[in-house]
């Protein structure tokens, strides 16, 4: 974990994105900050290919490593959008939600869940019925269908 000066906690102008990257146990380089800033600004999950278009000077390997570190720290979610490659979205500072994804055009909508997500019950049942897993720490639930434009 990077060392932080004693006056850091008193700094009123701290950057929450920089803090999030540090909490993931990695250095807050310009390229990592750029990846995180784009994820924060995006309304919908974004693919690595889309990130590459927005960050042409950042290597694909750097994007992958940054995303994996942030996913591992729980700050970014890996989302199955029904395509061969995963997409990613910022989890840090956002409410728990699921997605509805159009199978024709790929349009994605966040769906807020109730205070107690019903999928948590399924997650607990999965753990209770699992013979191989000690714990299940998260879940992902996406719904697929046709949006109103494509129907």
Describe the structure.
By secondary structure, the chain is of the alpha+beta class. The chain folds into two domains: 15-92, Arc Repressor Mutant, subunit A, CATH 1.10.10.10; 95-151, Ferric-uptake regulator, C-terminal dimerisarion domain (Dna Ligase, domain 1). The chain is 34% helix and 17% strand. It has five helices and six strands; from the N terminus they run ααβααββββαβ. It has helices spanning 16-23, 30-41, 48-54, 60-72, 118-129, and strands spanning 46-47, 76-79, 87-90, 97-102, 108-112, 142-145. A hairpin with a 7-residue loop joins strand 2 (76-79) and strand 3 (87-90). The N and C termini lie far apart (50 Å). The mean pLDDT is 84.
How many domains? The number is 2
Q: What is the CATH H-level superfamily of the largest domain?
A: Winged helix-like DNA-binding domain superfamily/Winged helix DNA-binding domain
- CATH class category label of the largest domain: Mainly Alpha
Query: Which value, in Å, is the CA radius of gyration?
Result: 18 Å
Remind me, CATH topology of the largest domain? Arc Repressor Mutant, subunit A
Numbering strands along the chain, what is their spatial order in the largest sheet? 1-3-2
